[in-house]
Design goal:
The protein has helices at 10-23, 40-50, 63-66, 85-91, 103-110, 136-139, 162-176, 188-198, 213-217, 276-290, and strands at 4-8, 28-29, 54-57, 73-76, 96-100, 117-122, 147-154, 181-184, 207-211, 223-235, 240-241, 246-247, 252-258, 295-300, 303-307, 315-321, 332-334, 346-349. The protein is α/β, with parallel strands linked by helices. Strands 1, 10, 13, 14, 15, 16, 17 and 18 form an eight-stranded mixed sheet that branches.
Length: 350
Amino acid sequence: MSGLTLHLDVGRWRAHLAREVAATPGLVPVAKGNGYGFGLRRLAEESARLGVDTLAVGVAGEVAQVRDVFPGTVVILNPWDASNPRAVELAEDPKVLTTVSRLEDLAALADLPIQPRVLVEVLTSMRRHGISPQDLDRVALLTDRVHFEGWSIHLPLREEGRSEEVHELARAALAAVRGPLWISHLSAAEAVGLAADLGRPEGPVPLRLRSGTQLWLGDPGSRRTTATVMDVHHVSRGQRVGYRQRACPSDGYVVVVAGGTSQGVGMEAPTAATTLRQRAIALTTGGLGAAGRALSPYTVAGRKRWFLEPPHMQSSQLFLPASVPPPHRGEELPVELRLTTATVDRIVEV
């Protein structure tokens, strides 16, 4: 079977998952989008295997993919939207925990005939979703009409100032209504310090730490990805090839491999270029792409090879110099994929 394949050392992967659960207070696995390359259903099954009581998904439409295989609570991370009929329906599901990020939406939820289970999100320095700390006292006026299950705090990835921010926001939230804190992007060590600080003098505050990338992809050695060689063609210098009929720079081979834009190849999420060196690399990469040359994530004979042209929908064409022995049709080539943006054709357990 040709395609993109994720080879997974299941024993090693599950050992890593178990260590993360043991080391992380109140861990809540996050399964959203493409399921970090594994698929939502598989992550829901693994979460059930781990014995956690709660699983987080991104949007209301993802609940149906996990709820029949995960026996516990399913949290929807994106803010509740009254204009989404599915979200309104799920707010009345006793198995679903709804995140609310606007006061008017909390009021609308409070008017539902069945009291919904609710997390209230606090606005952080990300400025994405949440109620401003200055307005949290207004939340207290509505919590007796919903099942208030805590505060959601989604922190930025940058470590500088993060500890101070979470302490400040947590204190403001608990001053309005005391309840569990559901936090993203906080290390276990930081969580221990936060719990100790907030526990005085009222007593312990339950912490729930959400984890996605670190949980599912935190051990790179547990997996590798390959792509099947679909065809190999000898070409001569100057011969025109590909959709765009570009001239070959020299004698060599066109290697057609599985994986294209529909699977996330060549469409990786942008990364932050915060240093001069990173910006220079970004400019260089952009220049190569504009000139029709871009380094592919596929490895042949120990080196990553150039794309012949931008990837196609479900396959890619590579150019290989004549000095390099070409791979055979059906051979599996290493390919470096960003699993948060890629979709593999199959997962093979090893």
